[in-house]
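Researcher: Quick test of sequence recovery. Tokens follow.
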């Protein structure tokens, strides 16, 4: 079994706090005691954990991160932004997923109780906002990444989803595409409602309001995007563009257009949302609305670290701009 800080303390005849103070080179430990503790550490081969190092100063020097799953296409970019920021500040990262539902949540809450981390970054799993709010009210610093329209009482970082939807609409309108098919995501997500509102309003203002048959709720998967567009084409439904609320849905839409013997963008233009790495590799490359996913991770981690060092956090959410990336799936100017 690995040597613990308790083993070192017992062998040296001191408390665990004293061992932690020695590890942190704190001056309040006298020289002879510090030397005795270091000798025991060397003899036992003890490797200090971040929790042991932080014990004397009341911090674990570790940040927790709770996410629904690691399979989301943009999760890697968000996490890389978090990791870059956290590690640069000398903190570790403890990652939790909710792949196993209630079991995962129970395991996570046990780590909260054990004070395994100093603050929490969250990409909100389903049905956890009440729990997160309760943790925040009990004093755990929490920062949310992508608020999904929930607008929690603790700090969060989001993107200009409504503006992104409007920019996608203006791009298609400029290309003369007046009959779009819109593949939304699940309606319970605030980002979906915002993206659709921006797109819908831009088309209405241009004199081409969307009809009910032009909007289909999808599930953010490539398979559903392919199925919906394929069914519409087989039924003879006429549309000259597809706006999918995420890139996977857009990739599925393009596959269905190609399978029907049509061309992208000549027959059907396609626009996605997110700008995941796959978007630049499709044939043709996908026009999409870029979310600054890595910057969202960096910004959220920076907010949390600032809170841990006693800085005041902004009262309003941090909203980062989206931007349209025009590629080959839409006509050029």
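Model:
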């Amino acid at each position: 079994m690995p040597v613990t800080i308790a083993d070192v303390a017992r062998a040296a005849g001191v408390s665990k706090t004293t061992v932690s103070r020695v590890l942190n080179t704190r001056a309040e430990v006298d020289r002879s005691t510090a030397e005795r503790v270091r000798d025991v550490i060397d003899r036992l081969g003890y490797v200090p954990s971040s929790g042991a190092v932080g014990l004397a100063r009341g911090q674990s020097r570790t940040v927790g991160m709770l996410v629904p799953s690691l399979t989301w296409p943009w999760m890697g970019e968000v996490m890389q932004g978090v990791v870059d920021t956290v590690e640069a500040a000398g903190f570790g990262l403890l990652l939790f997923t909710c792949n196993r539902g209630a079991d995962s949540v129970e395991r996570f809450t046990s780590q909260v109780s054990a004070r395994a981390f100093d603050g929490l970054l969250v990409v909100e799993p389903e049905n956890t906002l009440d729990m997160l709010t309760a943790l925040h009210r009990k004093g755990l610093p929490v920062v949310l990444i992508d608020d999904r329209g929930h607008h929690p009482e603790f700090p969060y970082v989001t993107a200009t989803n409504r503006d992104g939807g409007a920019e996608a609409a203006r791009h298609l309108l400029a290309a003369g595409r007046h009959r779009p098919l819109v593949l939304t995501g699940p309606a319970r997500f605030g980002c979906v409602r915002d993206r659709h509102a921006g797109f819908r309003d831009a088309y209405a203002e241009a004199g081409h309001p969307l009809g009910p048959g032009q909007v289909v709720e999808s599930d953010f998967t490539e398979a559903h995007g392919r199925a919906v567009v394929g069914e519409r084409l087989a039924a003879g439904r006429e549309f000259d563009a597809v706006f999918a609320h995420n890139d996977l849905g857009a990739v599925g839409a393009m596959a269905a257009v190609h399978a029907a013997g049509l061309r992208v963008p000549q027959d059907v233009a396609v626009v996605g949302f997110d700008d995941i790495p796959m978007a630049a590799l499709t044939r043709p490359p996908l026009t999409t609305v870029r979310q600054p996913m890595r910057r969202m991770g960096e910004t959220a981690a920076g907010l949390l670290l600032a809170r841990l060092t006693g800085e005041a956090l902004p009262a309003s959410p941090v909203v980062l701009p989206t931007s349209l990336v025009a590629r080959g799936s839409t006509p050029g100017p």
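Residues 190-205 form the longest helix (16 residues).
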